[in-house]
Amino acid sequence: MPLFSDLNDQMAKYRFRPDQRFGQNFAINEPLLERMVELADLNAKDTVLEIGCGTGFLTEKLVKKCKVIGYELDRNLAGLLRGRFKDEKNFRLIEEDIVFAKLPKFTKVVSLPPYNISTQVMLKLISSKAMFERAVLVFQTEFCEKLTAEPGFPDYNYLSVLARLSFDPKIALKNISPASFFPKPESYSSVIVLQRRDAPKVAQSGDFIFFIKNLFRYKNKNLSNALSNCLSQVRRLGIKDEKMRKALENSGIGDEKVSLLEPEIFAELFSRISR
Fold first, then answer.
1. pLDDT digit string (tens) for 219-265?
2. Please, which of 70, 71, 102, 168 could form a disulfide with 98 given CB 3.0 to 4.6 Å?
């Protein structure tokens, strides 16, 4: 049965409609879901995190490969999922908000998260202690381009730095038509693959995330001026002004524009000033 017909049957049976409070756009493109599973390269030893299981179209494909931990906040959809997978030993449903949840252990992420929490989802995954191997995610194309942006490009921002420090991010499938979803989102989507890489210890630190986010408010200034402008925020982390000044002098990058610096430079600088 085509996924759109299946979705209509589910909506009639469980009496629900897509709820924009939860950012719901259900995937009805089966080849897209199959490609996501293929990109994840799953095996029986994996445990997959799925964020926003929805009607379980993707979940159904994942549980055939490995264990799945699925998060779903919508009570109607949680009831649907419980019924659909009541006899499925590979599926565990958690009815919590992923943004505030304490994540369990998992090895990979395969998911189509609600677009309205894209930033929160990425920050959650970046700071996760699970040290998962790979993530295959669908976001708006514009958001994916920010995650993969390199220094000097207009889209380069604090999320680019954080993503590139912990992962090798690559867009695997670009500009997926809005017709692949119901209801249709306003923009095109893309599949991004985040492959884990060796990262500096500070990359997952909440303090570093706070530091880099504030610094990039002044991305078009040189590093010295940007730090001066967010000095009050930096001081909240217990970083001394003198230590920061010496680190800048020793590094020789004070005159470099923030938006031109490689992610590793920010990590090294923060490591020096936060010791």
1. 999 999 999 999 898 889 988 888 888 888 888 899 999 999 999 99
2. 71
Q: Was 46 annotated as part of a binding site?
A: no
Alpha carbons 40 and 48: distance in angstroms, whole number: 9
Quote the strand ranges of the chain, DSSP E: 26-27, 47-51, 67-71, 91-94, 108-111, 134-140, 167-176, 181-182, 189-196
- Options 2.40.160.20, 1.10.8.100, 2.30.30.40, 3.40.50.2300; CATH for 203-273 is 1.10.8.100
Residue of 25, 22, 30 lying closest to 6 (CA atoms)? 30
52 is in an annotated binding site: yes
Place of tokens 């999320």: 159
pTM over 0.90? The answer is yes
**Residue 222 counted as an annotated binding residue:** no
**Tell me: the pLDDT tens digits for 97-112?**
999 999 999 999 999 9
Separation of alpha carbons 254 and 226, rounded Å: 9
Q: Is 72 annotated as a binding residue?
A: yes
Rounded-to-integer distance, Cα 59 and Cα 33, Å: 10
Topology of 3-199 in CATH? Rossmann fold (3.40.50)
Nearest to 219 by CA among 256, 267, 169, 167: 256
